[in-house]
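Tokens in:
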């Protein structure tokens, strides 16, 4: 799923459980070998339009060792790091040894690099990467709206264990912050999804509200329309806008079923009780 035009400067593609979609750049006319492409990417030219990275992706792990990706991630060249982060979004736990390098990119000056780093950590992290998962969650507080949106997507698509580890470590690493509030609310409403979402969407801290939006659109088999509607009605314009995009641009799992599309006899409305104060 492509990002909207106004967000295109931050990230070129959305991801889903089914994988990432490459832009159709046409058949490669590149005569360079994989190692030659790598060298060119290490010193990119000003007129590079991304086609070389696309060609290199097909060579990575084949004619060029997958470990070569690490060279791009730790490069002193900002454009090379951006390319490395982008290429990493097409990988999975086969680059789990590079999660630390990806986490380091969360402090990169380029917001597109930070966005791709969040996605890559989601794709390649393991159960031993709690600290790195927490750092990806910290992107909910990023200064750039597009990166914050990437962190909301992280909450939306993370596996249960990833989200649990991210939430717990984030609270431990940043006590007394909105991240500890997220952990507290999650514990308080442990068995009540609607209560958790309402409590977070009503919270005074923007970071907590963004996490709540991620939960509202979480990639369940059935997405509850009401959860998104609650977020859409938020007084926080950022939350309301992103929730509206969930409806208008279908920024939810392509495999999910909307609650409103089910036969009336099978529906159960979520409990609208307010969060405990």
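Residues out:
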């Amino acid at each position: 799923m492509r990002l909207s035009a106004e967000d295109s400067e931050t990230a070129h593609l959305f991801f889903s459980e089914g994988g990432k979609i490459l832009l159709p750049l046409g058949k490669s006319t590149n005569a360079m070998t994989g190692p030659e492409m790598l060298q060119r990417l290490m010193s990119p030219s000003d007129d590079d339009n991304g086609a070389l990275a696309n060609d290199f992706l097909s060579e990575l792990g084949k004619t060029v060792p997958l470990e070569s990706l690490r060279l791009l991630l730790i490069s002193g060249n900002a454009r090379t790091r951006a390319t490395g982060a982008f290429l990493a979004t097409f990988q999975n736990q086969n680059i789990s040894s590079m999660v630390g390098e990806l986490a380091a990119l969360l402090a990169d000056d380029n917001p597109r690099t930070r966005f791709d780093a969040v996605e890559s950590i989601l794709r390649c992290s393991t159960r031993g990467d709690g600290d790195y998962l927490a750092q990806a969650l910290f992107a909910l507080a990023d200064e750039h709206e597009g990166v914050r949106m990437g962190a909301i997507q992280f909450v939306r698509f993370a596996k249960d264990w990833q989200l649990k580890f991210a939430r717990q470590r984030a609270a431990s690493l940043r006590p007394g912050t909105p991240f500890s509030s997220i952990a507290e609310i999650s514990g308080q409403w442990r068995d009540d999804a609607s209560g958790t979402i309402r409590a977070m969407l009503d919270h005074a801290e923007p970071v907590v509200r963004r996490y709540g939006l991620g939960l509202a659109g979480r990639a369940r088999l059935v997405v509850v329309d009401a959860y998104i509607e609650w977020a859409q009605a938020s007084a926080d314009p950022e939350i309301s806008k992103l929730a509206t995009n969930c409806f208008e641009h279908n920024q939810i799992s392509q495999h999910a079923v909307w609650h409103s599309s089910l036969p009336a006899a099978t529906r159960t409305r979520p409990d609208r009780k307010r969060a405990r104060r």
